[in-house]
Write a structure and sequence with these properties.
Elements (H helix, E strand, L loop, with lengths): L2 H4 L9 H4 L3 H13 L4 H7 L11 E2 L7 E2 L13 H35 L11 H10 L9 H17 L13 H10 L6 H11 L8 H31 L7 E3 L9 E6 L3 H11 L2 H9 L5 E6 H11 L3 E3 L4 H6 L3 E6 L7 H7 L4 E4 L10 E2 L7 H14 L14 E3 L5 H9 L7 H9 L4 E5 L11 H12 L2 E5 L1 H9 L5 H5 L4 H10 L4 E3 L6 H14 L11 E5 L5 H12 L3 E5 L17 H13 L2 E5 L2 H18 L14 H8 L4 H9 L6
Parallel strand pairs: 4-5, 4-7, 5-6, 7-8, 8-9, 11-12, 11-14, 12-13, 14-15, 15-16
Antiparallel strand pairs: 1-2, 3-10
Helix pairs in contact: 5-7, 5-9, 5-10, 5-24, 6-7, 6-10, 9-10, 10-23, 10-24, 11-13, 11-16, 19-26
The protein binds FE(4)-NI(1)-S(5) cluster (NFS) and iron/sulfur cluster (SF4).
Length: about 675
């Protein structure tokens, strides 16, 4: 096809300020430009996305193709229509995302099994209370049994969820009753994780399922095996082995790297490795080894979701989110970047070649050509972690010139659903009542979950922070995970007092009373299941409807890029949520002239809404996402018969009120505070 017909947009090279809103990232991008070093940002500028593929109009499922459907009414060589092709591409992405999350969950289950049998060096069961709570949900006996015995049974049950052929995935029982009924009636209740993923691949082999709605029906089932299966299992076991998160003080951005220490950055997703690297970095023998090499010690930090795992449990700083993996290396101060699985760019190895950084792959599933491979094995994890750190320390002497941007911000992460429950009600009456009440009274207008990746095709962090900033002003409580949470952390939204002057009056009252930041960091991407749990508990608490789709809440992934994000979006929609994704739209291309064709984008919207009460939209403009978020929240409030949003009612209490009356004479101040002057 001639190039004019493909209409490749010629993109210009962006300045560092256009590429990212983060000053630390800008500084590193300016340095990369100066040195002529390529990054994902410059490569995104140089390579326009294929506008056929990006709109979902390309099929490469068989050797007769790839077939590119560029005109209305065209089909593939086999006759496949555009809606069939888009649905097949979409379910394949969902299957890959679901597989990635779930395989992580499977490895966690094997680790739990090894720990229960005393075969995993260095690991213990840290949260026995959570172990007992989770086991009890599945009727695993807990009374008079050792944690190891309970863990052994739970590990067996969880391992079985992956290969289960019939019946219902065990964690599904934790969904609201009404939701489970919908899934059962529609036939999308997931059976076994592996079964749904394999079936998704089978159905999309050449010449199989070719009815878009039927394909997408199974996309829902596959995604539910992730959200209410593999991911939920991963979160449960991470908490049991490494502790359920509670607020800790942390820091985020490249400024957490230290000029006089051995900097080791862990990047990827699985806490099994990173937790052991944390333990090894505190070992006196390793610290002495680092000192002998002339460093002050070891400075550990994280990138991507592995950063979130150790940040929310140990307060280990986050060097940045997805798009900062290369930028960390550009500082010249990273002795080793230790990676496990997912979201790791191959470009790291070539980039590291320009500096002294060692890229160390550790997963038996992930190797990168020319990287150092030190294979991780949970049976002798601590020794392996120490070896990895020694490699990094040995590399300290090779460090050249360094440039660490002087930008970092403090944050308080660690808002697991258990902690939110506790913080609202205290230990004796832990409950979601105060949260529901605050929403019902209109102090909190609604809840937005802002999650997901950063994407070099969008100004880095800009959508996350624009949307977060505006929703907070509108009294929307924001919960975040993944790279989105790191974006907000860098902007200072994850601090108690620091963020409150940027928050609407009602939400501010709640934050001051409870003592929480206006944005709650709930963990990594697999921890999006914590958000499902919170929504379920809000429903069970009463007053906000009896299913997730009735709660005034939305989900946003404003800078998505990974297939996992599509799986998350789909299971959230199937759970009843309104989900908006920012950036590329994989179902943008439409076969509007094809007789009887189902428009996939419309099906995601009104079709899914009819079935699940949730819907999925792909939008470019963050302002539009904000507008739709508020409209949706207000519509849900109205449907519940709640008072309309009225911020003028609030803000007359707490710190704001004190500030306001501080300058007044004593009597007037007392009158303002107590409504009268107390008798002396
Ligand atoms: Ni989620 Fe985490 Fe980040 Fe996106 Fe990648 S790190 S699992 S996929 S890029 S949020
Ligand atoms: Fe083309 Fe059909 Fe093969 Fe896809 S499955 S590549 S549309 S012939």
């Amino acid at each position: 096809m001639a190039e004019e017909e493909i209409r490749i947009p010629r993109k210009k090279r962006r300045s560092p300020e256009e590429a990212s809103v983060d000053p630390a990232a800008q500084e590193m991008l300016a340095f990369a430009d100066l040195r002529g070093i390529g990054t994902a940002f410059s490569r995104a500028d140089a390579m326009a996305p294929c506008n056929i593929g990006s709109a979902g109009m390309c099929c490469d499922l068989c050797g007769m193709g790839p077939c590119r459907l560029t005109k209305d009414g065209m089909t593939g060589i086999c006759g496949a229509t555009i809606d069939t092709i888009q649905s097949r591409n979409f379910i394949r992405a969902v299957a890959a995302g679901s597989a990635a999350h779930s395989d992580h969950g499977r490895d966690m289950a094997f680790t739990l099994k090894a720990v229960a049998n005393g075969e995993a060096e260095g690991y213990t069961i840290r949260d026995i209370a959570k172990l007992r709570t989770v086991a009890a949900k599945y009727d695993i006996p807990i009374e008079d049994r050792s944690p190891e015995d309970i863990a052994n049974d739970l590990a067996d049950l969880y391992i079985d969820q992956f290969g289960q052929q019939r019946g219902t995935l065990a964690p599904v029982l934790r969904a609201p009753e009404k939701r489970k009924k919908i899934w059962n009636e529609l036939g999308v209740t997931p059976r076994g994780v592996d079964r749904e993923v394999v079936e998704a691949l089978h159905r999309t082999h050449m010449g199989d399922d070719q009815e878009p709605a039927h394909i997408l029906h199974h996309a829902v089932r596959t995604s539910l095996a992730d959200g209410w299966g593999g991911s939920m299992i991963a979160t449960d076991i991470s908490d049991i082995l490494f502790g359920t998160p509670a607020p800790v003080l942390g820091e985020a951005n490249l400024g957490v790297l230290k000029d006089d220490m051995v900097n080791v950055v862990v990047h990827g997703h699985e806490p099994t490795l990173s937790q052991m690297v944390v333990a090894a970095s505190q070992d006196p023998e390793i610290i002495a080894y680092a000192k002998a090499a002339g460093a002050e010690g070891i400075n550990l930090s994280g990138i991507c979701c592995t950063a979130n795992e150790i940040l929310m449990r140990q307060g280990i700083p986050a060097a940045g989110n997805f798009l900062q993996q290369e930028l960390a290396i550009l500082t010249g101060a990273v002795e080793a970047m230790v990676v496990d699985v997912q979201c790791i760019m191959q470009a790291l190895v070539t980039l590291a070649d320009e500096f002294h950084t060692k890229i160390i792959t550790t997963s038996p599933k992930v190797r990168i050509k020319d990287a150092t491979h030190i294979e991780f094995d949970e049976h002798n994890a601590l020794s392996i972690a120490k070896n990895i750190l020694k490699e990094a320390i040995d590399n300290y002497e090779n460090r050249g010139e360094i440039r660490i941007p002087d930008y970092k911000n403090s944050l308080i992460p660690g808002f697991s659903h258990e902690y939110i429950n506790y913080m609202l009600g205290g230990s004796y009456r832990a409950s979601f009542r105060p949260l529901n009440d605050a929403i019902m009274a209109g102090r909190i207008r609604g809840v937005a979950a802002i999650v997901g990746c950063t994407n070099p095709r969008i100004q880095h962090d800009s959508h996350h922070t624009t949307i977060t900033e505006e929703l907070l002003k509108q009294d929307v409580l924001v919960v975040e995970t993944g790279c989105s949470a790191i974006a907000s952390a860098k902007m200072g939204f994850l601090l108690g007092d620091a963020g409150l002057d940027r928050v609407g009056p009602g939400l501010r009252e709640v934050c001051e009373t409870v003592g929480i930041p206006p944005v709650l960091h709930m963990g990594s991407c697999v921890d999006n299941t914590r958000i499902l749990t919170v929504l379920t508990q809000m429903v069970e608490e009463g007053g906000l409807g009896d299913d997730i789709n009735e709660v005034p809440a939305v989900g946003l992934a404003p800078e998505w890029m990974s297939e996992k994000a599509l799986s998350i979006a789909t299971y959230c929609v199937a759970s009843g949520a309104y989900v908006m994704m920012g950036g590329s739209n994989p179902v943008e291309g439409r076969g509007d002239k094809i007789p009887d064709s189902v428009l996939v984008a419309d099906y995601f919207d009104s079709g899914w809404e009819e079935l699940y009460g949730g819907k999925l939209q792909f939008l470019d403009d963050p302002e539009e996402m904000i507008r739709r978020t508020l409209d949706h929240i207000d519509a849900k409030r109205e449907a519940l018969g709640l008072p309309g949003y009225d911020p003028t009612q609030f803000g007359k209490s707490g710190d704001a009120r004190l500030e306001e009356i501080e300058g007044l004479p004593l009597e007037e101040r007392q009158a303002a505070l107590y409504g009268r002057v107390p008798a002396s």
